[in-house]
């Protein structure tokens, strides 16, 4: 997760956006869309703004339609090529990795993607003294490669519901060096355990 020094805040209720491809609007199911908004103080610059819209309870048919909408969007597929990435991503240092914002992490931790995610694991790659000084609630401290192998690969986390996802989110002080390296290490070790393209953890984020 990038920009950890920021204080992430959960998504607030905002006006319903117009969904792509003329899809109907639903409530209390997360739909993430990107819009262009003018940057304050400038008439020329525009910034991409993520909107997470909460939809009312809906039927299983409506949820399936939302899933189809997400799948049909132009996104890169996760590591086993079974489906697109669920979470909206932001620009990061390493183009081979998927980076998310603090706001998206907050939405995951507060259950706003629970219709799609069965288990989310936040891996804090900092040194133990940094972790003890303060950390994301529920995060696990895995500063060494052997820690990651023991925790995630010796007894892999497998979703009980095959339609839901297990996602792993890595971070360090600035999510610039240690977290990206550990994310790539897990993917390499995970690949080595399987016949391509199968993976224990196809969906990784920084």
Description of the molecule:
Its EC number is 3.1.3.48. Keywords: Cell cycle, Cell division, Hydrolase, Mitosis, Protein phosphatase. Belongs to the MPI phosphatase family. This is M-phase inducer phosphatase. With 206 residues, the chain is of the alpha/beta class. It has a domain at 88-193: Rhodanese-like domain (Oxidized Rhodanese, domain 1, 3-Layer(aba) Sandwich), CATH 3.40.250. The protein has five helices and six strands; from the N terminus they run ββααβαβαβαβ. The strands form two sheets. It has a four-stranded parallel sheet. A two-stranded antiparallel ribbon has the order 1-2. Helix 4 packs across helix 5 (178-192). Residues 4-58 have low confidence and may be disordered.
Mean pLDDT metric: 78
- Can you tell me the CATH architecture of the domain at 88-193? 3-Layer(aba) Sandwich
Spatial sequence of strands, sheet with the most strands? 4-3-5-6
Annotated CATH homologous superfamily of the domain at 88-193: Rhodanese-like domain
CATH topology of the domain at 88-193: Oxidized Rhodanese, domain 1
Structural class: alpha/beta
Give the end-to-end Cα distance, rounded to a whole number of Å.
5 Å
Radius of gyration: 18 Å
Helix content percent band: 10-25%
Question: β content, as a range?
Answer: 15-25%
Characterize the biggest β-sheet.
4 strands, parallel
**Total number of helices:** 5
H-E order: EEHHEHEHEHE
CATH uppermost class of the domain at 88-193:
Alpha Beta
* Poorly predicted segments: 4-58
């Amino acid at each position: 997760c990038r920009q950890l020094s920021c204080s992430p805040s959960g998504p607030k209720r905002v006006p319903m956006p117009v969904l792509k491809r003329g899809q109907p609007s639903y409530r209390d199911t997360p739909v993430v869309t990107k819009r262009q908004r003018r940057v304050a103080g400038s008439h020329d610059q525009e910034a991409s703004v993520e909107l997470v819209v909460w939809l009312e309870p809906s039927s299983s048919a409506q949820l399936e339609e939302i899933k189809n909408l997400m799948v049909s969007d132009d996104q890169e597929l996760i590591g086993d090529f079974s489906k697109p990435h669920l979470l909206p991503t932001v620009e990061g240092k390493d183009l081979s990795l998927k980076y998310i914002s603090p706001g998206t992490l907050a939405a995951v931790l507060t259950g706003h993607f629970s219709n799609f995610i069965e288990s989310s694991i936040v891996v804090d790659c900092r040194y133990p003294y940094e972790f003890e000084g303060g950390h994301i609630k529920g995060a696990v401290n895995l500063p060494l490669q052997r820690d990651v192998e023991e925790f995630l690969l010796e007894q892999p986390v497998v979703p009980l519901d095959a339609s839901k996802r297990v996602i792993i989110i890595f971070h360090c002080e600035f999510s610039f060096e240690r977290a990206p390296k550990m994310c790539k290490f897990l993917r390499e070790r995970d690949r080595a355990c399987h016949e391509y393209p199968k993976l224990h953890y196809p969906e990784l984020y920084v």
